[in-house]
Amino acid sequence: MAQNEPVRPLNTFVALALALVFVIGLGLVAWRVLTALDSAAAAAVITASATVLISVVSLLVSRNWEQRRAIEEAHREHKRAIYEDSCSSGSRR
Q1: What does the alpha-carbon distance between residue 29 and residue 34 come to, in Å, rounded to a whole number?
Q2: Angle, CA 76 vertex, CA 7 and CA 63 arms, to 5°
Q3: DSSP string, 12-61
Q4: Would you kindly state where each structural domain of the chain is located, as residue ranges?
Q5: pLDDT in tens, 37-51
Q6: pTM higher than 0.70 for the full model?
Q7: Integer angstrom CA distances of residue 73 from 56, 61, 85
Q8: Contact, 46 vs 34, CB < 8 A?
Q9: Distance, CA of 79 to CA of 26 (rounded, Å)
């Protein structure tokens, strides 16, 4: 696939469907394991899992926000150069 070629919607749908099946399967396995444990151990596993999940999600959101901000800043600099060029060429007339 070429680098500039857009992702086909069918490929995206298949990938999302497979991810959903994987997450559901993982959830079922986790449910079976947690129901087999005593309540104190299950609570500890859930607490640890939630802590890790929240950390990973916050890291991903933070990186995404930083990347968007960097793109916006680069775009702003590009627009500023175009604006300054158009203003300087307009004042010559």
Answers
A1: 9
A2: 55
A3: HHHHHHHHHHHHHHHHHHHHHHHHHS-HHHHHHHHHHHHHHHHHHHHHHH
A4: 10-91
A5: 999 999 999 999 999
A6: no
A7: 26, 18, 18
A8: yes
A9: 47
